[in-house]
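Researcher: Here's the sequence for the chain we discussed earlier.
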Amino acid sequence: MDREDETGGEIMRQLVLLALVGLGAQLVDGSLGMAYGVTSTTLLLAIGTSPAAASATVHLAEIGTTLVSGLAHWRFGNVDWKVVAKIGIPGAVGAFAGATFLSSLSTDVAAPIMSLVLLALGIYILARFTTFGLPKHNLGKPLRKRFLGPLGLVAGFVDSTGGGGWGPVGTPAILASGRLEPRKTIGSIDTSEFLVAVAASTGFLVGLGSQGIDFAWVLALLIGGVIAAPIAAWLVRHLPPRILGSAVGGLIILTNTRTLLKSDWVDAGDAVRWPVYIVILAVWAGAVLHSFREYRADRERERELAARHTAAA
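Model: Thanks. This is the structure I predict for it:
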């Protein structure tokens, strides 16, 4: 009986942890327009879930979180529905193709591939937000289907094969175009991700059935994400994205580097792994500190500019 109680307690602790991960990941995703899937999948891989099952679990949870997130962003006026349609439908096609592709790979082959994709996304997120933060918008012509269609197709494929990537691929590309303000870029990407999550989940269920998918984990991630979604939609105007992006990017890099170094592809010993971890931690800490300083400097410049305008008036 005591052993059953201990087992039940361990399962409950695991579910609570997953719910907290879902909450934290959705806060990040709803504020940056990226990283829910990357963050959640990275954790599931770290605790031993197979790559296809991890991505399937996250995408099933995302059906609920993206729906709630999209509705919240819509209520706060953060959604451009033309952009949602132009990028979301090709994204769904790419996601379905990526899910069926990943389902056909063996775990030994898929795990390092997924970690490489996640590692690349983590490096991109860390570098992007540490160096630039969110770009300033410069509104121009409407975004065209010939730009959004291929972008959605690639982002959807990367998202399902890497367990995340819709936001890291789609959000910066739209921001860099200068044609949609940041809050509407983030809101539109989060809303269109609902279509991607449905298509990817369908692809995984076709390829895997329910094999390896723990629906209690799906529910835990979903509950945490649903709680965080409306908060994130409101916080998108208030959180410093630069600091948040640097922190999340470093976490993704560290976790997936650990997975790669312990994989059969590399099989590095402690003498190699620990120096690599120390270097990553040092770079990560430096990146977060730099982002914090740049954020403070930006705030100071904004205050000085506001004071000048007030004095001139």
